[in-house]
Amino acid sequence: MIALSTTMRHSWTIMKPLPERPTFAQLQRYVTEMERERNLNDGSIVEQCLKLSEEVGEVCKAVRKHEALSIDPASTIGSLGHELADVLIYDLAIANRSGIDLAKELHAHQRARPNRSGAAELTLADLQNFVAEATADEHHLSGTLIEQCLLLSARAGTVYTVALTSQSPPDARPELAGGLIGVLQHLAAIANRVNLDLATALRAKEKINETRVWAKPSLRPAVS
Predict the structure, then answer these.
(1) Closest residue by Cα to residue 89 from 152, 156, 162, 32
(2) H-type helices in 22-79, by residue range?
(3) By mean pLDDT, which of 13-17, 95-99, 110-114, 215-219 is the weakest?
(4) Which of 43, 122, 221, 224 is the most buried (most CB within 10 A)?
(5) Nearest to residue 188, comparing CAs of 95, 180, 49?
(6) Residue 23 dihedral angles phi and psi, to the nearest 5°
(7) Which residues 6+ apart lie within 8 Å of 68 measured at CB?
(8) How far apart are the C-alpha atoms of 206 and 80, rounded to whole Å?
């Protein structure tokens, strides 16, 4: 997002902090309010997909660093937790723009397993627990950290494809929801492999975001 000059800065009210264990319903409401507060709520689904693709790339860079793979020494690489949090935020933002209730979609994926929380109570911790339990049965969740990173990219690609090609959004909603759920599952799988708590990572990233200056997407800095 473009940071504006001092005279063009937008001040906004600091929002209430996220609960210790936010439900997905709370998370989606939080992102809606956060985008409104920061004047980020007029971007289209396709624009949000572009941002999601950028953040998935940042996750891949952070995974390369974590796995001690060769990286460009001049490249700026954020912490893996912060990059996962950014992907989570854009996943939620796309769901909001599409009218998709992620809690209900996740609950539908988990119904085959006993003793699951109801849709209204599902949290990020529930998602991470579900993915951990499903790893033995679902091959796509059992790969290495690098494999999970690549699968995250692939599932995000489903989201982009639907957003770009759909001529009838309501008809495409199930496929889009499936892509968004896939992104969440692989986010959880990555977090589990490095012992990260997604809710904690999100709160930490939002503390940083609260100190940033945000610009309306429609505004552009003057060209000198």
Answers:
(1) 32
(2) 24-37, 45-66
(3) 215-219
(4) 122
(5) 180
(6) -75, 165
(7) none
(8) 14
Yes or no: say if 77 and 61 are a contact pair by the CB < 8 Å rule. Answer: yes
Dihedral sign, CA of 113, 115, 121, 124? negative
Question: What are 182's two structure tokens?
Answer: 């896939």
Name beta bridge partners: 123.
23
The token pair that represents 128 in the structure block: 């991470």
Phi, then psi, of 186 in degrees rounded to 5: -75, -30
Weakest mean pLDDT among 17-31, 78-92, 165-179, 204-218: 204-218
Angstrom distances, CA of residue 115 to CA of 112, 126, 167: 10, 11, 39
As a whole number of angstroms, the distance between CA 201 and CA 84 comes to 8
Joined together, the tokens standing for residue 114 give 């006993």
